[in-house]
Amino acid sequence: MGWWQINADTLAGSRFVLSPLAETFAALKLLHLGSAAHPGERAWLDAHRPAYRARLAADPVTAHLVHAGLGKDWIADFLTPTPRDREPFEEGVARVRAADPGQARTHLTVALAGPLPAVLDRDDLPARAAALLAYVWTEAVRPDWDRRRRVLEADVVARTAQVSRGGWAAVLDSLRPGRTRWLGDNRLQVNLHEYPPREISGAELVFVPVTPKGGWVSWEEPDRYAVIYPCAGALADPGARTVPASLGALLG
Question: Is 83 exposed, middle or buried (0-12, 13-18, 19+ CB in 10 A)?
Answer without folding.
Answer: buried
